[in-house]
Amino acid sequence: MAWLLVAAALALCVARGSRCPPRCLCPAAAPNPTLLCARTGLLAVPPSLDRGAVELRLADNFIGAVGRADFANMSSLVHLTLSRNGLRRLAPGAFADLRALRALHLDGNRLPALSGAQLRGLASLRHLILANNQLAAIEPAAFAAFAATVEDLDLSHNNLPALPWDAVAAMASLATLTLDHNLLERVPAGAVARLPRLARLDLTANRLRALPPVPGPPGPSLAAGGNPLHCNCELLWLRRLAQPGRLESCASPPPLAGRLLWAVPEEELACRAPAIAGAAADPAAVLEGQPLRLGCAAAGDPPPALHWLGPDGRLVQNGSRRAVKPDGSLELRVATLGDHGAFTCVASNAAGEAAARVEVAVLPLPVPHGDEDAEDAVPGPSDMASGGNETRAAANGGERRAVAAELAGGEARIRWVPQRHGPGIRGFQVRYNSSLDDGHVYRLLPPSSRSFVLRDVASGRRYEVCVAALVAVGPSASPVARAVGCVSFTASSSSPSSCGKALATPHFLGGTVIIVIGAAIAASVLVFILILTARYKAAGAARRSPPAVVDVCSQTNGARRSPNAEASTGAFPPPTAPIGAVGGGKAPMGAAALFPSHSYPRRARTRRHGSLPRLDLPEGTPALRPSFGSTHWMLESTV
Q1: Which H or E run contains 484?
Q2: What's the Cα-to-Cα distance from 63 to each of 85, 97, 600, rounded to whole Å?
Q3: Nearest one of 382, 359, 405 to 508, comparing CA atoms
Q4: 128 against 414, higher pLDDT
Q5: Is the backbone of residue 328 left (phi > 0), alpha (psi -120 to 50) or beta?
Q6: d(CA 609, CA 631)
Q7: Model confidence pTM above 0.70
Q8: pLDDT by residue (tens digit) across 26-48?
Q9: How many CB atoms are closer than 10 A to CB 523?
């Protein structure tokens, strides 16, 4: 029995040895399959790895890249070490099959960046060591696979100017975060507070001038020495935590430069309230639709944050038309009449705030009055800006201009009749907004446009739409806006109301369209009937009845009747032409007549309701009046 156990052990050792890559050690005494390939001069991951291994050590080699298939099917691997290999490239999905991996050591390599695909599949990772690389950027998705499980994240000694703090804050189990010896310049407020299990945070030797408060007490153990800290009232929380022997020191202001933070009295850590040095608009006055920039400069300790309040007193947010720049300036890409007034620049810091007003003048687009065709018309206030006025249009001698809105299926079609047709119109400008919008939206349309579709109309909102025609008043002058009209409507209402205009409601427009279409169809049918009648009459006038057959032999004696006798009796007209293919006239001797020689006219009835049209007979031929019924000749064979 003993020799059977020895044989089994030898067979297991042989089996393990056969799966052990060259230059690697595979200890038989290890409880789980282990591959030790450190310091063996490997240039790549060995292809003959035991795919059931639990631990794999490849440190201190010359592996420059990891491919997609290098660790394929190693679903039992728990510990992987690739330290100090000079790695420059990780293929996307290189660790996708390592679902049980808990520790990954990639320190001491030359990785320049991390993407989301490179660390995909590490669903059980607990320890990620990326120290001493050349990392300059990390995508937020790089930590997504193990955000819920990672406990230790080491990114020290890299070139990181920033960190995806939102992705780091999602690591609910993170206990140790090591970020020393990087190029970090900022830690967002609240980023550390969102890590409930954080026990140690190392920010040593970065470029931090300020630190947001960390939660406590007790809070995490913090190391922040070697940073150029600006010692003011914002660091009072750190001063109260500091103890002799800590290395946090002040780099500014000058009176405190070089002093350890724990040795600075709290009363010397002061802040200075902001003061606004200047605020102005460039330019101070613009026409509506033009860009505008508002600048504001403020000083304080710490440097104050700048924000703007609009003329309506509300905070200005970044959007498609407005943008607050990093330097605190406000850019209005498209100025509207709602921007006319005073903007307020507010500077605030930990010591207080200051405000300054900036007056902005937004002028309405000029509209010439008087004769529309006069090139020297005097500009006046824009009808488009003031909502339009029917009385003004009538006083100027122009035609009444109507703008109508049709609501259907979450869309509003705006239709208008231009104030003047011709090449002088360069285009149309549409301005609209809703009851919940701060500013207006402008759209330029080609001169052939007669309608505009406003999409995504929100139910319950009131919309105001104005249309203006861009008219060229001179050969070299820029076009000016001439108001066509305005319309306002509520999306939930079926009949929009006008701004001083008589507007057609959707029901009225729909009935009008139906009546017009019905009238067009009836007119088309009448025209068609008239055409058919005229053609029928023309065809009847052109028809000619075949001439009566003459020169028919008598049934009794076959003698030829004289033309005078025939003319006197009125039974048959004299022959006028040879009988052709269609019939009529006298046939030459020996030729076949229209009817056989043994056939004769049995009966001829005179038409009661008219006569045949006159045939083209030679001059002097008497008029032919006899006519016959629909069956002109009824023949009967004598055979």
Answers
A1: strand 480-490
A2: 5, 20, 122
A3: 405
A4: 128
A5: left
A6: 15
A7: no
A8: 888 777 888 999 999 999 999 88
A9: 10
